[in-house]
């Protein structure tokens, strides 16, 4: 009887162990491999040779000396018109001259700044991927290999929008070790990863962790799509590789969350795969342009457009002469598909358009007044646009509903707020705690529409806003610093 009980116990234990570890058969083998004591040691040994430390030097003008060299006579640096020997309102016994000469006269006109970062070799001829912010503005770049040998390097191309850069060792040794770019789309949340870099100048530091999230948008640039990891990343890790267990680069370590621990961000390798060839060939990245300004479709905006749930990218403005305008896309349209790729969130659209070769044909599907429409267009090349000047706050004006004070745009207001527009109602004051303030409207905004009704004057706004139903949601179109966007305002009782 005891023997039978023991047998049953062993069988139950085996079943329990199978349920605990064997139920995830494909992943179980990977997990077992990942937690063996020598897994990361072998990976580090195999890949660290291709990781480099990058130090840069930049010559900077001495702004303090430059400021005092422009002081009135008698208060400048030696040799300047206002320096020793210059004319002073105090005559030869200028009491300030000795002070300024002593503390600022010996200041150098320029000084050098130094910074550290990381990078990794991608082919045996010495091409290295790093972050743009590591080498931007550098007058001298030095690359150090794992053995301690230093080499000079030059910038081949930079892309500030993705914070990626390609540099090249000027006189590379033969048979350099290099790393292969992997498929970041294949990476799963929870996968093991290893980071190698130069944190705080500590050469070739190795840390490990997992992929914590994908597709993170942190406001670093227009094409944010970061991998989040809890592998320890610190200042100096920038530009270093984030590796999977195969030794492939799945991310380029780029940013950290200063207020958090165990939260780092890496640019996906697939983004680098589309950027690096252009940097090597052209020194810059050529991107496609649709010609629209878009914003997030919030639940409130979705409701105002009659949508069951938020999705797509809301067109806040269509640029004159752009492919979008020529095709017939309008302000207020919601783009829900681009070339067969559904647009679930606004941030997906800029990346898809940017990756489209200028001159290529594209199909865009939109929602307009609850109905789907499709447009065929030709993508043009993205060009840089000047940003509008910052608007300044101004009080006064006629009180209007919702806690706003508005005025017609006249030449004086246009000059004061640095506006080019002549139509619309200019917001010159927002009552604290009002519905408008809660919605994010601020002085300097130009009110263009409410629920599709055009506003040309302050009187128009007053009339339209006065007819809004209480306890409803109003869809406001505003222009701010040269850009248009929609905001929803909760109409109070």
Radius of gyration over C-alpha positions, nearest whole angstrom: 30 Å
Assembly type of the chains comes to single chain
| Name of the CATH superfamily of the domain at 184-282 | Trypsin-like serine proteases
Quick one: CATH class of the domain at 184-282? Mainly Beta
Number of strands: 27
Helical content, roughly? 10-25%
Mean pLDDT: 81
CATH architecture grouping of the domain at 184-282: Beta Barrel
Low-pLDDT runs of 5+ residues are 1-37, 73-90, 385-399
- Given the helix and strand composition, which structural class is it? alpha+beta
What does the largest sheet look like?
A: 7 strands, antiparallel
Number of helices: 13
Task: Categorize the overall geometry.
Answer: elongated
Distance between the terminal alpha carbons, to the nearest Å? 80 Å
The CATH topology assignment of the domain at 184-282 is Thrombin, subunit H
How much β-strand is present in the residues? Answer: 25-35%
């Amino acid at each position: 009887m005891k023997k039978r009980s023991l047998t049953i116990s062993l069988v139950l234990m085996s079943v329990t162990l199978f349920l605990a570890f064997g139920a995830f058969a494909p992943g179980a083998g990977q997990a077992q491999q990942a937690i063996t004591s020598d897994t990361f040691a072998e990976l580090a040994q195999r890949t660290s040779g291709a990781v480099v430390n990058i130090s840069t030097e930049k010559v900077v003008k001495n702004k303090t000396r430059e400021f005092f060299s422009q002081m009135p006579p008698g208060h400048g640096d030696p040799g300047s018109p206002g320096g020793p020997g210059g004319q002073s309102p105090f005559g030869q016994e200028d009491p300030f001259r000795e002070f300024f000469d002593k503390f600022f006269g010996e200041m150098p006109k320029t000084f050098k700044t130094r910074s550290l970062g990381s990078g990794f070799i991608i082919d045996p001829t010495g091409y290295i991927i790093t972050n743009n912010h590591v080498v931007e503005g550098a007058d001298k770049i030095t690359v150090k290999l794992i053995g301690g040998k230093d080499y000079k390097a030059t910038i081949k191309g930079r892309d500030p929008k993705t914070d990626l850069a390609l540099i090249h060792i000027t006189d590379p040794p033969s048979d350099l070790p290099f790393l292969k770019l992997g498929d970041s789309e294949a990476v799963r949340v929870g996968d093991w990863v290893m980071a190698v870099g130069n944190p705080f100048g500590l050469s070739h530091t190795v840390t490990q962790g997992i992929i914590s999230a994908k597709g993170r948008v942190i406001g670093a640039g227009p094409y944010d799509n970061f991998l989040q990891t809890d592998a320890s990343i610190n200042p100096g890790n920038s530009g270093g590789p984030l590796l999977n267990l195969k030794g492939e680069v799945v991310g380029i370590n780029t940013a950290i969350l200063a207020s958090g621990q165990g939260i780092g961000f890496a640019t996906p390798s697939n983004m680098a795969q589309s950027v690096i060839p252009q940097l090597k060939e052209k020194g810059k990245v050529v991107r496609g342009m649709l010609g629209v300004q878009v914003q997030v479709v919030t639940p409130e905006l979705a409701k105002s457009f009659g949508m069951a749930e938020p999705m797509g990218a809301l067109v806040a403005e269509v640029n004159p002469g752009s492919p979008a305008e020529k095709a017939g896309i309008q302000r207020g349209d919601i783009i829900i598909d681009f070339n067969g790729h559904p647009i679930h969130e606004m941030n997906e659209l800029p990346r898809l358009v940017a990756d489209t070769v200028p001159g290529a044909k594209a199909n865009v599907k939109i929602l307009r007044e609850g109905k789907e429409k499709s447009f065929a267009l030709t993508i043009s090349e993205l060009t840089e646009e000047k940003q509008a000047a910052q608007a300044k706050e101004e009080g006064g004006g006629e009180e209007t509903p919702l806690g706003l004070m508005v005025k017609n745009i006249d030449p004086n207001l246009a000059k004061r707020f640095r506006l080019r527009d002549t139509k619309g109602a200019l917001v010159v004051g927002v009552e604290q705690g009002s519905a408008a303030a809660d919605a994010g409207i601020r002085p300097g905004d130009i009110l263009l529409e409410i629920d599709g009704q055009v506003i040309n004057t302050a009187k128009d706004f007053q009339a339209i806003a006065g007819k809004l139903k209480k306890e409803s949601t109003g869809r406001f179109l505003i222009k701010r610093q040269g850009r248009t966007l929609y905001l929803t305002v909760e109409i109070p009782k």
